[in-house]
Amino acid sequence: MQILLVEDDEVLARHIEAGLTQEGHVVVHCADGRNGLMQVTCETWDVVILDRMLPGVEGMKILSAMRASGNETPVLMLSALGEVDDRVEGLRAGSDDYLAKPFAFSELLARVEAAGRRNVQSTDPPAGKLRIADLVIDLEGHVVRRGGIRMELTMREFRILVCLARNAGRVVTRAMLLEQVWDYNFDPQTNIIDQHISNLRQKLKIADLAPLIHTVRGAGYVLRP
Amino acid sequence: MTGRYWRSLSFRIALLYAVALGLSMAFVAASYFVIAVLIPSDEVRNRVAQETRLLSQIYVVDGEEALVTALEERRARTDERRAFDALIAADGRAITANVPSWPTRIQNDWYSIEADIYREGGEDDFSALSRDHLFDDGVRLIVGRDVEDLEDREEIVRQAMPALLILTVVFGLAGGAFMSRTIGKRLEAITATARRVTEGDLGGRVATRGKGDDFDQLAVTLNRMLERNQELFETVRRVSDNVAHELRTPLARLTARLEAIRTKFPAGNDDFDEIDSALEESARLQAIFNALLRIARIEGGRHGANFRKVDLGQIAADCVELYAPVALDRGITFEVSSGNAVLPEGDPDLLFQALSNVLDNALKYTPVGGRITVGTESGGWTVSDSGPGVDEQDLKRLTERFFRSNSVRAIAGDGLGLSLAAAILQLHSGSLSFRNSPDGFVVSMSFQT
């Protein structure tokens, strides 16, 4: 993916750039808001990573300018403010995702890739069905079948599975699951997600079939055959 | 509470005002009575007594005829108090008299004789304040002077007094009520402002009327104090915002560097694991840091709370559902008794956070195989667990930041969960309270509904 990184902190920017490049992405880095705004308007990007506090033009202003001119490039906001309501504010202003500093690189990578994918394929397949190997998810009927056998899932488990399936093959972090599967914006005190995943795994387990949900150490989960 | 107190204070002021006004009215009436009635009456009595003494001496010394002449002379003299008299022989025949009638029996004390005089078709009312003198030979002398005006005045005072008093009390009550309401209103304005500021609107100020009266002065002083508070608060806020930014950036770099080093080792390597634990520690540092800032923001009323109608039962159900797998895993039974409870103004995200923190604690401290009950009533939530409870002396300190009871030190935690829950409840004008019960531990999260 072609990624624009607008971040004034040298160390952090270098780290992000190195990490994303290692993952096979092309990264262009701008250290101030004015340059960032120019790059955003002149070039086409798959994803823009935008720091909120920037010298020159503020991140939020760049975002507003983009959205005002009809530029729908996915934007991942980075912020050292990081309050829950700052996040809400950022999302409301039109960013696709919001990440508070400090963050683990794996979290950033997972979100950048999810944002990039949303750009390519923003709607579900027309049949309303997601298929991953032997797993079929009927989004409208809320039915999950594996190898033809119907799985009895709770509403929450179903939503977790859908979230993983939409990002099949890519890491979904715990924080991403929390944001997308639960209707509340909150910080859990413990790794409560792990328990839900473990239950879901149990239910999807069928004797001869290979496990579908894999844990990625230090990052999150991935659904793949 | 304050309203009721104020109402009663208004009532007391009004009553006091009415009583004071009534008393001063009564005092004025009494003074008038003394000056306009009692003192002149006394003067008349003295005068009549003196005249009686003189006239009786004339009778004793010069005889009946001389007295009659003296009496006639006395009648003829112009005086603002017309003279009246009657000289009655021992057999009851009137020797001379200018009063139409008199009591047949001798009076020992002062008395009044109606002495109306008809003249040219009109009638002059006179009332003679009179005194009897009985001579040794049985002749009776009545001497008097007119006090009609004094009696009229007395009559007026007697008749008007009750009405006057009632009117005074009524006006007094009305005036008192008006006065106390005026004061009450201005005090209420100050109370309302204080409440607004307490609830987090630091920009709240008391309105002044620009008249420079006592209340204006109080308002100006209070406003100055609020101004100063706000300044101090803003300073603290700026500092904490800067701290947030200035600490987050190096923390982000630290994480970044550690991650960069980690890539140099294959997963599973000892050094990789070491760096991994360092990364976990920095994540924990971040979590504590976030929680602290969040508590500070909520307590400072700076959380952009998204208030709307909230179904407490729904939040409880969702929260229990979130923790159900953990409970199942630990063999803990979850019991939910969900009543119908709606909070007209609440932030669902924050309330969910508060309840989840409490539930998280309950799950942490309840032994395997225990039970946790989550109840929703109209007043709020109750979470009871079958855990060991908390030392009585620690109960009060549970919401202190970083406080951890000695009995739970072995269990992981940062001592901020309940502080955050308490701050959230405070934002909702609610309260968080704890108690040990025979079965375990009870946390009550109550809201004013």
TrEMBL record, chain A:
UniProt-recorded Gene Ontology molecular function terms: phosphorelay response regulator activity; transcription cis-regulatory region binding
The Response regulatory domain, residue ranges: 2-116
Keyword Transcription annotated: yes
Residues within the DNA-binding region(s): 127-225
SUPFAM superfamilies per UniProt: C-terminal effector domain of the bipartite response regulators, CheY-like
Cellular compartments per GO CC: cytosol; protein-DNA complex
Domain OmpR/PhoB-type: residue ranges: 127-225
Key words of the record: DNA-binding, Phosphoprotein, Transcription, Transcription regulation, Two-component regulatory system
Cross-referenced InterPro entries: CheY-like_superfamily, OmpR/PhoB-type_DNA-bd, Sig_transdc_resp-reg_C-effctor, Sig_transdc_resp-reg_receiver, WalR-like, WH-like_DNA-bd_sf
UniProt record, GO biological process: regulation of DNA-templated transcription
Modified residues (4-aspartylphosphate): D51
Superkingdom of origin: Bacteria
Membrane-crossing segments per the record: none
Protein name according to UniProt: DNA-binding response regulator
Organism of derivation: Croceicoccus pelagius
Automatic annotation (TrEMBL), chain B:
Protein name per UniProt: histidine kinase
Class of the enzyme per the UniProt entry, highest EC level: transferase
Residue ranges of every copy of the Histidine kinase domain listed in the record: 242-449
Main location: membrane
Species lineage: Bacteria, Pseudomonadati, Pseudomonadota, Alphaproteobacteria, Sphingomonadales
Annotated organism of origin: Croceicoccus pelagius
InterPro entries listed in its UniProt record: HAMP_dom (IPR003660), HATPase_C_sf (IPR036890), HATPase_dom (IPR003594), His_kinase_dom (IPR005467), HisK_dim/P_dom (IPR003661), HisK_dim/P_sf (IPR036097), Sig_transdc_His_kin-like_C (IPR004358), TCS_sensor_his_kinase (IPR050428)
GO molecular function: phosphorelay sensor kinase activity
Catalytic activity: ATP + protein L-histidine = ADP + protein N-phospho-L-histidine
Record field: transmembrane: 14-39
One Pfam entry name: HATPase_c
